[in-house]
Specification:
By secondary structure, this protein is of the alpha+beta class. It has helices spanning about 1-15, 65-85, 100-125, 140-150, 150-155, 165-170; strands spanning about 25-35, 40-45, 55-60. It has two domains: about 1-115, 2-Layer Sandwich (Phosphorylase Kinase, domain 1); about 125-180, no CATH class.
Length: about 200
């Protein structure tokens, strides 16, 4: 993914930072990935062969809803602060086109597909070797009846607002949710708990 992004960044800089001569992008690396934006560092080399210069720069990508508005607002604010002498980084260029966003969106969709596939494969495993001998799996209400008993100790140590009400809601509707098909579940499946190798 980073190789493709670096090539796209190279093309973007060549097309938009025309005041720089013989540009070369290298060392693109992810610094952070979050709900609001993804941040990358990279090195931009430019200049004639006898006087090359290296710039350590930052690429910030805003995916999702209102990405253009968010990026434009931050870009404008940073530029104004820099102009009045406030110590913020100099912002060089703002892309309001979807060139980078489309690649990022495709990558996210591919990642979500892999995450969904992993969850599906986990749920399809033979559950018998993971079964709790204390539970009667022939009784479709065995696990439901155990659930309200499992969490009070957790809630006492780690109070979560509204969770007790959820347990009470589930307990009052116990007859509506029989546990018909046991399955292995992750219990904490999210992007921070999954490692995906380049080969998927």
């Amino acid at each position: 993914m980073l190789i493709e992004m670096q090539a796209q960044l190279q093309s973007y800089i060549e097309a938009n930072l025309t005041d720089l001569v013989d540009t070369s992008v290298s060392d693109l690396a992810s610094i952070s990935a979050g709900r609001e934006s993804d941040v990358y560092s990279f090195v931009l080399e430019h200049g004639k062969s006898d006087s090359r210069n290296n710039l350590d720069l930052i690429l910030r990508i805003y995916p999702g809803d209102n990405a253009y508005e968010k990026s434009a607002r931050e870009f404008g604010g940073m530029r104004l602060l820099h102009e009045v002498g406030y110590p913020v980084p100099l912002v060089k260029t703002l892309s309001m086109r979807s060139q980078m966003a489309e690649s990022e969106q495709a990558t996210r969709e591919d990642y979500m597909a892999k995450l969904s596939s992993l969850a599906s494969r986990l749920h399809s495993l033979d559950w018998h070797s993971h079964a709790d001998s204390a539970l009667d799996y022939n009784d479709p209400y065995s696990l439901i009846d155990q659930t309200p008993k499992m969490y009070p100790d957790y809630l006492e140590c780690f109070p979560i607002s509204g969770f007790q009400e959820i347990l009470e809601w589930l307990d009052s509707r116990r007859d509506l949710v029989p546990y018909k098909k046991p399955a292995v579940v992750h219990m904490d499946l999210h992007s921070g708990n999954i490692l995906i190798q380049p080969d998927g």
